[in-house]
Amino acid sequence: MNIKKTVTLCLLVASTQLAAFAHQQSISNASPKRCQAEQLIAHYEQTFGEHHEHANIATHNPNHNHNQAQQQKSTVQQLTLLRKGNRVAHYNPEQKVANIWYLNRHKQQQLTRVFERYQQGIEYQADELKAQQQWHYVRTLVDHALLASMSHQKASGAGCQRLEHYTLATATHEFQLQWLPALALPQSLVVTDKQTHQTSRLQLVDIEYGDKVVEQFTVWDALPTTDYADVGDNENNPFLAKMINQGFSGSPNAHAHHHH
Amino acid sequence: MYSRWMLRSLIASLLATSAHAAVLPEIQKSSAWYSNAEQVINTKLQQNTKDKAKNVILFVGDGMGISTLTAARILQGQMAGQSGEEGYLSFETFPYSAQVKTYNVDAQTPDSAGTMTAMISGVKTDVGVIGVDEDIERGNCATVKGNELVSAVELAEIRGLSTGVISTARITHATPAATYAKSADRNWEDVSDMPEAAAAGGCEDIASQLVNFEKNLEMRFPGIDVDGIEVAMGGGRRHFLPKDAAFNSADARSEVEGDRTDSRDLTAEWQATYEHGAYVMDKAGFDAIDPATATKVLGLFNESHMQYEADRANDIAGEPSLSEMTSKAIDILDNNDKGYLLVVESGRIDHGHHAGNAYNALNDTVEFAKAVQAAADATNPEDTLILVTADHSHVFTIAGYPKRGNPILGKVVAVGSDEPSLASDGMPYTTLGYTNGRGFADLGSETNADAIYGIDPNAGRKDITAVDTTTPGFHQETTIPLSSETHAGEDISLHAKGPGAHLAQGVVEQNVVFHLINQALGLLND
């Protein structure tokens, strides 16, 4: 894998936490009223760590039951995706952290991570975008290669309301995707691990259109930012000192459960 | 007339010297180690030192501690197919050197703002402040007035010398800023970085101070007539442009390149002030400058910092190297018969270390040494004092017992072995490492050290058995997890060549550097 892709994907995984497991639940009926794919706010709910069925694993580990019980607890997080032309933000309302990407005309991805609690942002180096797949993932929350490899099952509705159903079964996972092609967004994405029976779910809850997108980007743009290269020279800034000393990455789900 | 006692002593001394010389076996006297070292002393005995210089060039390697010099010289030699240890960086062959204490007035381990202020003004000050003394309260605009220091660059301008400031960091970054600005906070690079009270209180942001340098200096000292900094080149366009996409440069990486919230376009203001000056923002513009006729140059080659030398080829619009900027600056500045003062900073050595990436820190140090050599080649050693130093060190170590010629970026392979040595945990380890920072990452061919910031810190021991640690994208292991590797507090070195260079000796405070410049140029002479 291209090294720069690896770095970008690390940031993406940190922002969306799709590598966890939950079991299938009912799907929201939220759907777009208008086709405004380039300027919208999409609210998602992410569920991690639920079991589709109980795993039956024999173990002599005295901590096994405790661990298993912990693993079965699901985690629910909110994720808001904002689009405005070549800018896309992934916002975690609980952490109040936004990852804001900009695709410039040189096909570089510029990431700024805004920490609303500290009213400051951190700018990362522009990442050379050698493949459109990276931007596809940022913009749609679905990996381009995954979408291309899935089988189309059926479709319903038309125009902006068209909903396409895709599935994919690999040796290790099953994928079910309900895709809104007019918006290039998932209505839902469910990933099940065949071995552990754990699933993760990304569920569209609501979509907003209009000036609110512009207003939100304007608020974030007004915050002062620091190049990450300068963080190490700013131990006197309380926020940056916290970054230096505690090493928090600031990713929206940095403190969430990881179940890889 | 010798007394009898003195004659006896002289004869005894000559006999003893002869006897001592005879004691040396042939293998010792014929050893290249022996004769080469003897030649060093003989050369020093023949040195003819002068006190006064026409020109001074101050080179500052940001974060270039002693361990960085050692590792960079080995890497430089190994890149040339040699063992490495026996070589020298260009400035390490200079005849004089000193050991420099770097602490700030309020900090045991310093930062660039306080250290460069000391070097360029002769006064140590607090961490984080630019061109002001220790009575300043960081971040408090009201405490600036009355605490402003005068820099060697300002004094040189007043004496009619030409002046230049070059950096691979933003030209508004702490080290270059200390040559021309006064600021209660190093981060006040443009007006949007300042608290409202500071702007309302009459404090001027750093970028604006660069553009208004001539006007401000003439206001501070009524009656003087200066012509402004002749050459200023580096990164940092964002601090000179309005926060308006209409002002974006051709290679802007952000949607809106400029950060200024006061609608000022400082590049336009600079061009209006110096109508015959050349504002350039890419390699083509840089190459088009004719140093024989150029009188003023403002080069802003990147939105933020310029690229690491290893990553420079990836720049969209193209950037000059530090060597190229140094050579062109000298060619412009030496048009002034009165002489010049040029300050050159390699700003990204520091950033490579902060990212825990020895490859880029060392590669930029090697380029820095090339820039010093370019300066030495372009100047007359009889009239130009060249000083080469750092502002502070980093927690960067050369450890273990690798054999001679072992790749400096590689794993430790002991004398007599071809296999990496194993630590008590059964895993190999690298010669280079950091005490703190982000820790291990294997980013392969990635030439941008800052790519690490997209990955969570990964401190502690890792199994690097299958990892090629000599690649540009390898980030060394660390012990203490921090999200950015830190400066270190030990002394750094000063290397000197040319008139006045012989005064660089012993263990000195960092603010002595100013007095070396002043003594050589006679900046304060009536």
TrEMBL record, chain A:
Domain of life of the native organism: Bacteria
UniProt keywords, alphabetically: Signal
Signal peptide residue numbers: 1-22
Name by which UniProt lists this protein: Uncharacterized protein
From TrEMBL, chain B:
SUPFAM superfamilies reported for this sequence: Alkaline phosphatase-like (SSF53649)
Top-level taxon of origin: Bacteria
Cofactor: Zn(2+); Mg(2+)
One of the Pfam families matching this protein, by short name: Alk_phosphatase
Active site location: 112
Keyword terms, alphabetized: Magnesium, Metal-binding, Phosphoprotein, Signal, Zinc
List of residues binding Zn(2+): 62, 350, 354, 391-392, 487
Cofactor detail note: Binds 2 Zn(2+) ions.
Signal peptide start and end residues: 1-21
Binding site for Mg(2+): 62, 173, 175, 345
Keyword Membrane: no
One MF annotation (Gene Ontology) recorded for this entry: alkaline phosphatase activity
Family statement drawn from the similarity comment of this UniProt entry: Belongs to the alkaline phosphatase family.
Name of this protein: Alkaline phosphatase
Source organism of this protein record: Thalassotalea euphylliae
